[in-house]
Amino acid sequence: MIRSISFLILISIFSAPVVFALTDEEAAAIPQSIGNNSYYRESVRYTKLAEETYASGDYEVSAGFAQEAIRFSLLSDEFVSSRLIEEAERMKNLAEKNALIEQFPNNYNLGVNQYEAAVDAHSKEEWNSSITSAINAIEIFGVFEGRPAVTAARTTTGASGLPRQYTVRSWVVEKDCLWNIAGYSWVYGDPWKWRILYEANKSRMPDPNNPDLIEPGMILEIPNITDESRQGMWRP
Questions:
Q1: 63 has a pLDDT exceeding 90
Q2: Which residues of the chain are in CATH 3.10.350 domains?
Q3: What torsion do the CA atoms of 197, 198, 203, 204 make, to the nearest 10 degrees?
Q4: Taking residues 54-71, what's their average pLDDT?
Q5: Rounded to an integer, what distance in angstroms lies between the CA atom of residue 53 and that of residue 15?
Q6: pLDDT tens digits, one per residue of 157-200
Q7: Residue 94 buriedness (CB in 10 A; 0-12 / 13-18 / 19+)
Q8: What is the 3-state secondary structure (H, E, C) of 4-69?
Q9: Fold of 154-235
Q10: Calculated CA dihedral for residues 71, 75, 78, 82, nearest 10 degrees
């Protein structure tokens, strides 16, 4: 994904038979420059014309404008799908060149599955599915980007092993969220285990009902899930 830029939610188009609505998490993965593309702006323009002519009673002309709004809305979805797939492919290639792929095999395989699903849906012109899968791939591959290789987890005591605690770092720089943290090799090596971290730490979260809201500086407890030995605080 294109990092360190502002984001927006794609707005549904008037009268469109296919409406693509993003969750807050998905919206955070759409760069504003992609969502606010020329096709989208044309769809908004034709939507406004359709509404104005409908209000004045010129229904036939309004219907024509509405059809154009739909056409440009779908072109926008196709454009967004293409750009997100390109970004997912870039991050997949980065993962394949990065030694971290050996430490995060689950992330890599999940990311590849989502990337291939995005490409397949795009070829079938299923823009909603393609965009969603591409966003998922980008988020999963994000664990590889900008993160140096680590040969072993270190605790504050200096002993090699698995840490029992982790201090949350920033989303902007480290992309820390429960999904990515659970995917670290020295946590669980599997992002799908994020809920284990959530249940163990929800009482100390700013909003216990919102697993997406974690803040830099928070100390997370990492529960054992097998008989692994954990001690101390992880440090880079």
A1: yes
A2: 154-235
A3: 70
A4: 92
A5: 14
A6: 334 468 888 888 887 777 888 988 988 878 888 888 898 999 99
A7: middle
A8: CCCECCCCCCCCCCCCCCCCHHHHCCCEHHHHCCHHHHHHHHHHHHHHHHHHCCCHHHHHHHHHHH
A9: Membrane-bound Lytic Murein Transglycosylase D; Chain A (3.10.350)
A10: 170
